[in-house]
């Protein structure tokens, strides 16, 4: 008996497209200040997971340190990465400022939470397991 064929969970299907798009994103707070605690990172992940879901994307991996966060996002071709990034940063900044006002204000002032720049890399060439392992191994503040 031949082994049963298992579909690749990274390959998704839409009405007229078959795709497997992943992006590694890195965001830093304004002035590279370090506002993230374990609790704030956990909440940031929850918020960003919800934003991805709203876009039809999936947050596959999330981790961070005091002064930056890493995301591995699986997204459909109809999503412009720049729009997804804008929403991820905008919604998370608003929610984190609302939920942790005193702590955030000691690190960041004015209306800005995130630096306007970000890192984005396509993950098509590297095995996803390698990128997931890299993100998993980023230190969280202790």
UniProtKB/TrEMBL annotation:
SMART domains: Y1_Tnp (SM01321). InterPro entries: Transposase_17, Transposase_17_sf. Residues 18-138 form the Transposase IS200-like domain. GO terms for molecular function: DNA binding; transposase activity. One of its GO terms (biological process) is DNA transposition. This is IS200/IS605 family transposase.
